[in-house]
Design a protein that fits this description.
Four copies of one chain form a homotetramer.
Chain A (H helix, E strand, L loop, with lengths): L1 H6 L1 E10 L3 E7 H8 L1 H4 L21 H22 L15 H10 L8 H8 L3 H10 L4 H9 L3 H9 L6 H7 L5 H14 L8 H7 E4 L2 E5 L3 H19 L2 H23 L1 H7 L4 H4 L5 H4 L4 H11 L5 H11 L5 E5 L7 H11 L3 H4 L1 E4 L20 E3 L5 E3 H4 L1 H6 L7 E5 L10 H4 L2 H8 L2 E2 L2 E2 L5
Parallel strand pairs in A: 4-7
Antiparallel strand pairs in A: 1-2, 3-4, 5-9, 6-9, 7-8, 10-11
GO molecular function (chains A, B, C, D): dGTPase activity
InterPro entries (chains A, B, C, D): dGTPase-like (IPR050135), HD/PDEase_dom (IPR003607), HD_assoc_2 (IPR045509), HD_domain (IPR006674)
Organism (chains A, B, C, D): Vagococcus acidifermentans
Chain lengths: 455, 455, 455, 455
């Protein structure tokens, strides 16, 4: 019976129209059932890029569409591997197509544990989207688990182990999670499409022509070096220009302080939150279950912020309004040599009347979980390998000057965030009172960065 | 002072990256302030296409991005009119560029009164997005009003009158609202982009090359006839294939019944709703203010549905789950000749155990507010006029066989909606019990339509 | 041996990068050899759209790239048919994949008989590209023949019979040649891409999802009706706006008259042409062989025109210059009711000093060999059929108002061509002398058409 | 009068549909006249990328369309400069719009001196496309000169001096010719479009947003650093993957040897060439005039090759056939350390029976005139400068790791070319005789490169 289920294919292939991949093709009943599960449908209500849509208004796409995209790329890789490199003909390096279903399920579900504004939320409420992904796959109460378990009793664990990278077949693992995997390839193309930028565009078709299985995982034919190189550069450009955009981070720090402040206030005024913010309470009080988690989405948080914006705690209300109405904090960059100015700036900000704890922030893009290519620093990263005509492998950065230039060092910046009012542009009498303070504050800023000496 | 404000232009033009128009260019301080207003920012939280994203998963874009797009097309038309057809050179038919600001504001704000799932919501709760658009523009408490009033005391009314089509300059009115206006041009292109279909694609650049002001409004040079024709065909294709998609409508009828049922239940159990659905209560009890309305968005409704899906009223809970987890009703078409079968089908549905009032629906696409080109039937529609070399005008359908074929008659269909379970595919014991009923039900269906005689 | 050759597939699939289809995939040695043949390589030197590139400067693509495109679409259709509708499972309507090679070869070679500016050239020199296609396939001296004959002795005849539509398997025939075939689908998309227009764009991916084999040929699933409808509309738009463009036709009539005049002059002054126009002589004297034909291409004709433009026959030289330097004849439309004015106009043109035979022309777009959808008029056209859920067929125009509006009647126009000088814009003294004549001439023209009564 | 001509603008702006820039807009009568000149129309008959279309079959576009594109980008830059940085407001760094016409003419005509297969042709026949560009602009017999001279007597010289970079206004010079100019921006985008690759795609709109005039020429706002960086990377990718493609170079060396051999043969057998190759004779005998040069185009050369391919000199005929029928030489890379093997390989090739002088070649991509970013090596290159908020300038490579990685060093390779027959794949008896020689030859090749030690 479970065998039968894993082999059940749809009489007519089902497709989902997709702006990035044209069509997403579903052939297995298992995949269709997973898409129809309530845990997966919930991803429709969680934006892929969180606060980025405050900067790039087109980027309102959900984790649902990204997950379908990762599935589709994985499916295409499996097709190519099956056609060109079957294990039957390549016993050492070939692809065993009986791995297809586990790969497809892992691809589809790799983000199933994400919640609203994940990276901010989990810092504050101690949730962890990777653990939650595993939990959803392996908890008997989830529909996802029930579907996976119909395939085979240990299938949920298998799929979870792909995400955890402990699955024995490294081809499957690296398809879903490596420096150049279906996940990254989809999000770069998708985020580029929806933001309307072109930096993330690389030649997926060509990469799929040169990808091939290898006994240690995934590799690329030497002839495709420039295509892989181009992907790495696109990735870099997307991080620099989209993911690390200072304005989106200026909204993210507001969200972060708003949730933190709400959590603190809950300790003092639980009644208010228990009345208005029902679905958030388990997180405010630290006693949440998987079921509680699965009720959250972007809309739940936003609808509580709408209520909070009318509450009579002035800070909670002000931060909620700034978030809902898109009033990002402004920022300047700093580095080790100018870090010492931060306390001075905070002091001025406090003097003007802001709670400096709540109204300033330091945001370092290196800390953001969209990771970057740094093989030396993080040993677990699998290298990208190129296969020469005679079968020997070369590591990508050895073959590409461009990749070598980007490899092994962090890119990004550190920014100090503060209220826009400090720039003295806000045309309010309250600010005018502090004109000297503002002038003093701005004397520390030059070309968008903190400087040591006042102008 | 107000004069000054209307003339205030940004020292450096501000742009918003847009996937459809590449960049949205903002030159006036007024426009920037309107975009920053809380009423306008709220449009970020309202999807442009409502339940369509359940069918086309890419279509998650908001009314915010559409509104920017309409503004941008209007701005481009103003530029073209100013450069090529200024009133100074064309006293009879030319464009008076002092009308630019009122046109831009009306374009930007034309949808400001929309709420979550507008068309469904307003049927049930007696809100009206057009009246609300006017209300937002002209109510002293709104930020939008305050910005518009800074331009001139009667400027809010002026902008509102453009939307109401009573503004004297019909060039401005028709730019925003006519058979081929900035609104329609943006949504066709935008919806095509985000759904990933190509039907809505037409040649905007070429249309902008042939558009020109006329003393009675807007017209098009004869040489652009095929470009206008192509726009009309694209519009038709989008309605037939995207806006009237049976599955999206199968979600819409669920939403409709869910809200109606909730409203009815509120009468009996107000406590439950007052506890869980704070922001919706003013609508459930029919005593809402503009301020109440402005707190609603898609996320507010969805977060209440999440709570409702756990309530112990089985119908409320079931409908909420069907909506959240995307379990659309199925449908068949019918017409005047087969309408008589509907009571029979409802009876079978009731026999199987469904409340037929709640679990069936008739949806006619002609009723959907995405209107269609039918000049004979609705007199107020302004025709599309083509200008010949010698200055005489021709109505579009006179010049185009294709448009003539589409003009003057409704397109779409009428569908009867019912639970998927009636098709007998759901693999549950409960349904198996009613096998004969299901067979009887399906005997009335052939090629997706109701038939009179049983098979 | 021949068997072996037909089965020989490349160890690694070869691809050609293509802007329209992304990649052209070659799997058979036979196909690669055909592409490498000198007759096929010659297509690189023949423009797909002839004089159209004088109007749309991007349209400089060759018959070589179009031929690859037709091959690629055919290959994709075969793949779909093989996967979804194999004859093994569908004995009545299914696809027999042993027909693949004949289909691919016919697709690749369907235009192999085309020469430079085919449609003009063959009118004058009595060549016929369809007969020449057959001749190239079946003449022992051609490389194409030698390759095809290696497959099987009668394979050249088989492939030729597909082009002639006499091949027994009508699925193969209709794939290459029907109202909606790989040929038309490629040229619409390709010509739209290279001209930079969007009219020709339709949803190829979707059409390939709904195409299916039928016992009588090719049909489309009912669910794809709108996609097929959209293709028909795109086709119509391309004809109206690109293929029938008056300026391209204004160059075509010059070319036509230039070649005709050259042929006439040859009779009187054979020496001149035998000295300068070596490769054209067999056509000027009507004694050409297949080998002579295969030496022609666009560049050959153009290089003779360069020489002719310096010859001392003033008409030959003037026409050659007009063609090389793009000085199209101008035109006005006329119809049955205004045809009587033509002799009057010619008389004025003669009076002004032009040889009216050479310097005027009538061009009717209906006569142009880019054919159009007119089932009633030309019985041999196979209809486009849609398959309903229960298997019954419907003819497309029965299901689509748009197609019905276009079907069964010619679209296009008739134009009278004459020298630009007649419009009196040329700023030369010679013309100024005839001012009254020009005024008289122009009094017969209104809104781009001939009128009966003078203005 | 001349004044009047320079100011004459078209009553209605004329447009050319362009697949890359959508529309080319022509506003000046001067520009329209230049486009209509016979010297400019001739560019329609010269491919932009020469032998590249043998590898990327879509790349059949002409220098005509590229020239229009360069004009259009220049026009857009002028518009931006005029609107945002007029000299009236920025006396030090601003743009003087009276320079527009000279800039537009220089942009349009910058390639007017190119002939067929320029880079190969001019090596052999001592033509120089830059000198010829100047000659065409300043020779009284050319139509281009006559048009330019109508503007002002010294206008032809002015335009020519822009091309020569001696024009005093460096803003104009750098718009047309610098590391990031309208020429390079157009050809990258255009070549990417027509080849169907995506490497050349960069964000033109964004670059046009950050470009600005500077007293020393052209600079870019700091905020656009990544857009400029992306352009540099795209440029690098196009060179590596398209312009330096080994197969195109394998055709180019054949062309080179064919023309050289023809020239040598002419010395011995002038009669043959004087009879068949009329338009080429002035170049074969080294006594050509500008008028002779202007009669050449790709088609002229190809039509002579067609004749040559039947001549009884076996080498001339064989090379002509290889070129017409696309039989590229094959190649392997080598470097300083393996250069010593070349004489050995040539010897084997000669032993097999090929004239090693004619049938082998060394091609170094560094020598190709598509230049590359190497500021240290070639001092005359103007650097790309970024403008910081406070007005100070930074050189691009100082701000970009990626550009720094590419700067200052050559990229490309050196290849040794030889007949495909040497690889032993050609299935001919003649080759089979030399099996040992071929084996020996191939023992020097590994992973596509020459190796010192035999395998």
């Amino acid at each position: 019976m479970s065998r039968a289920y894993s082999d059940m294919t749809l009489p007519i292939e089902k497709v989902f129209r997709d702006p990035v991949h044209n069509y997403i093709h579903v052939e297995h009943q298992v995949i269709l059932d997973l898409i129809d599960s309530k845990e997966f449908q919930r991803l429709r209500r969680i934006k892929q890029l969180g606060t980025t849509s405050f900067t790039f208004h087109g980027a309102e796409h959900s984790r649902f569409s990204h997950s379908l995209g990762v599935y589709e790329i994985t499916r295409r890789i499996c097709n190519i591997f099956k056609r060109n490199f079957p294990i039957e003909d390549n016993p050492e390096n070939g692809w065993d197509d009986s791995e297809r279903l586990v790969a497809l399920c892992a691809a589809l579900l790799h983000d199933i544990g994400h919640g609203p504004y994940s990276h901010t939320f989990e810092n504050i409420f101690d949730t962890n989207h990777e653990e939650l992904t595993t939990a959803i796959m392996t908890s008997p109460e989830s529909e996802v688990y029930q579907i996976l378990a119909r395939v085979e009793a240990d299938f949920p664990e298998k799929v979870a182990s792909v995400i955890a990278k402990t699955y024995p077949n490294q081809q499957v693992v690296q398809m879903i999670s490596s420096q150049i995997d279906a996940d990254r390839m989809d999000y770069l193309l998708r985020d580029a499409y929806f933001t309307g930028t072109e930096y993330g565009t690389f030649d997926l078709t060509r990469i799929l022509r040169v990808i091939r299985p290898d006994k240690h995982g995934i590799a690329f034919q030497m002839s495709g070096m420039h295509a892989v190189e181009d992907y790495i550069v696109s990735r870099y450009q997307m991080y620099m220009q989209v993911y690390f955009h200072p304005v989106s981070r200026g909204m993210e720090v507001i969200l972060d302080h708003l949730l933190k402040y709400g959590k603190k206030l809950y300790a003092k005024q639980p009644d208010y939150f228990e009345r208005t913010s029902i679905l958030l309470v388990p997180f405010l009080n630290g006693r949440f279950t998987l079921s509680d988690y699965l009720k959250l989405d972007d809309g739940v948080l936003n609808s509580y912020f709408t209520l909070w914006s009318e509450y009579d705690d002035p800070i909670l209300s002000d931060l909620a309004k700034r978030f809902l109405n898109r009033k990002p904090f402004k920022s300047v960059t700093f580095d080790a040599s100018t870090k010492e100015v931060l306390p001075v700036l905070k002091e001025i900000i406090a003097k003007v009347g802001f709670n400096a704890e709540v109204y300033t922030a330091v945001n370092s893009s290196y800390d953001l979980p969209y990771d970057f290519y740094r093989p030396e620093q993080e040993k677990f990263r699998t290298q990208i390998e190129l296969i020469q005509k005679d079968g020997t492998l070369i590591e990508l950065a050895q073959a590409s000057d461009l990749v070598a230039a980007l490899a092994g060092q962090g890119h990004g910046d550190q920014r100090f965030y503060f209220p826009k009012e400090m720039l003295g542009q806000a045309d309010t009498p309250a600010i005018t009172l502090f004109e000297d303070d503002l002038t003093y504050f701005n004397s520390y800023i030059k070309n968008g960065a903190i400087q040591l000496t006042k102008n």
